[in-house]
Structure formats: C-alpha cells, structure tokens
Design a protein that fits this description.
By secondary structure, the chain is α+β, with helices and mostly antiparallel strands. The chain has a six-stranded antiparallel β-barrel. A six-stranded antiparallel barrel has the order 7-8-9-12-11-10. The longest helix is centred in the first third of the chain and has 14 residues.
Length: about 450
Amino acid sequence: MRRMITIFCLFALACCPTAWAWRPVFNSKNLRDTITVQIVKHCRPAIVSITAHRLIRQEVNPFGSMFPLPMGMGTVEEEPADFLGSGFIIQKDGYIVTNNHVVDQARSIHVKLADGRELAATVVDSDPSADLAILKITKPGIYPTLQLGSSTGLMIGEPTIAVGNPFGYSQSVSSGIVSATGRTIREPNNPHPLKNLIQTDAAINPGNSGGPLLDAYGRVIGINTAIRGNAQEIGFAIGVDRLKQLIPTLMNPAVVDGRKVGVRFALVPGREGVAGPHEHVVVAGTMGPWVTKVDGVPIHTLQGAYAALLAMGVHQKKVTVTLADGTERSYPVTRVPPSPIVLKARKLLGMVVKQLTPAMAGQMKLSVNSGLLVTQIYRHSIADKAGLEPGDVIIQIGPYRVRNLAFFGRLLPALAKAHRVEILVLRNGRVGAGYLQMNGG
C-alpha cells in the first residue's frame, strides 16, 4: 500500500509541474541572503531590457529660430528615435511580455538579456487597450522564464519587487509593498483607461514599463506600466490575471500566422497552496482532464500550450492534444480566409494588398510606416493597367492618405463608382503618381 501511495505521489508531481516550482528559502546562517536577494538572483536571467527603434514625426522650421512660424506651417520630417522599456520571458521558446506602448510603431526591436546578449525580437501581437504585447526572440534557443502568479486576492502590505530598465539602467531592482488594488489610471496616448491596477511603492520610473512586479515567491503578479509624473513613490502594474486572460488572443495562430486551429485552451484552478492555487491547462469549455501534451510537446502553462500551436508545421492539417487520463484528441488546422476588404480589392482592382506595418517597413528599409503593400497583380486588371507592381506601397488614393486596410475598405465603394482616380505609390525609395482607370475609362 505504501508503495502504491509513493507511486501515486510521484505521478501527481509529474503531472503537476507547479508542485516543483522554485521557492526562496529563509537562510538563518546568512542574514544577508534574504528572500529578496534569492528572488532577484533567480528571476533576473528571465528579465530583459527592450529598445524599440521608431521613426517619429516632428515639425521643422526651415528658417530656424530667427523666423518663427505658426504651428502647422513648418515642414514635417521623420527622425529615428529609440524608446526604452522592459520585459520578461514567459515561455522557453523566447516569448516575452511587455507593454504595448513600449513597442508600438516600432520598426525594429532588440532585447538585452541579463547575460549581456542583445537579440532581435518581433511583435507576436498586442492589445493597445490593455497596454500589453507579446514579443518573440528571433534567435532559436531555450531561454529562462518567470512563473506567472495571480493578482487575485493580493493583500495590502504584502511585499513586492520590481525589476526593469529605468532610464536605461538595465536589471535595476526596487522593492516595496502592495499599496492598493483596483486602481484606474489614464495613460498618455491611450484612450482606454487601465482598470483594476496594482498600486505599489516599489520605485517604478521611465523604462520600467513592461517589467515584472514580483511577489514574495518570485512569481509575476503584475506588469509595471505607469508612474504619476507629479508624485513620488507611486507606481502601477497591470494585474497578471489580465495577461492570462489575453494569452489565448495574443498567441492565437489565426492572428499570428493565419492558421485557424479547432481547439482553444484555458486555465482552471487546482490544489490550493501557500502561494495561491495551482492552475491546470484544459481544453476550453471543460474542467479537465488537464492537458499534458500538444503535438507531443509537454505542457505546463497556458502560454506553453499556445507556443506549441504556433510551432506547428507549415502544412500541418491537424493538432493532437494529450490529456492527463491518457486519451488523445485531434483537432483540425485550416487557413484563415482573406478579409472581405482584400477579396473586394482583388475583384474590383485585380490586386492583392496587405497592410504595411512599421516592422515590415523597417525590414524593407522603407521611408514610410504605413500604407498598402501590393503583393500580387493580376494581368489585364485595373491595377495592371495602372502600372502597379508587387512591392509597391500605395500611400494615397485621390485626396486621401491611406494608412490601413480599414480606411481602404471605406474607400472601395466610392472607387467602384469613380471614373479616373489618382494614386501615389512608393517604389524604390521614390514616390510616383499613377491613375486607376475605373468603369472602363
């Protein structure tokens, strides 16, 4: 009987990896080796400094300061600028969490690890309203990670630790307490208020944005996001539970690489521990058995389950999910159809376009950050007769600056009724004009 109990306990530990999670231990022989010291030493390898390279638009007076011009009368120029922030790795494949405002409109992104390595990263997806983004280190490898805790049930006064890149000083550490919960603030350039935030007196300065707020067990309880410029020792963090709610969206293959998978995952609480409840990954809409593998990859976290989906083969038609009771289920993988706007443009104009992003513009070394990138032209179509070519970027149609697909979609009904419409196109670093001859004109 004792042997059976031992085997059961080992099986339970194997199926519940959180039982093996690292925990700091009080060291009575060395009082300098505090819980905070142990947490920082353990967590720092998974915390990164982020540099986002952007082009910023600014008005320039060509006559200098001697002849001041009214606002709006100068020339607008775009200048390169670097924005600093922080982040932390949540999945060993190199998936990083940060704030959206750190990487928004970035043409390229680099992250610096605690060991000094500087690596390129790309945006997987972001949610501006929640001010959260997930990045992916482009260099394959196995990276250290942080464990996600819970922001539910935080106790006012419990200790917190913030690690980040304030003012460019990477791997800076500050400590404090949970000062309050449920706060609401408004950030500059974000029309959506951030709600249910954690307030802490751990020092959070510019550059800390996107870094982790840790609890006394070294788990992430929040994502540092804002400070009050007119106050001292008041910082805020997005509760980590908000991040866990958004992982199925931010790491959704349908959004990231255009593949629709017939399964979604969710978290359900498990055994209660001193650090909070352990959580299990399950197929969404069920309470278990919990998921142990996705396509043969062992699964311990929600982000791990979605990382396995994103790692599927290009031509994969199904994904296999293994459950804790040993059963396997297969789910279909299909391509997401093009948006109605893309289909309508192909039918009306005979071209396939995609929205140009700052990251794409940076990779292609373009002088614009937005527009419509032409990817395909059909022979004898309106677009073909206009002289458009794959690789062109349409930046203006008629009098309208076209920055995204949504605005382009609003123009299409008017184009269908037009006769001859001028367009501006960026090609080989130069802007040229052409005409769309509509209605057989």
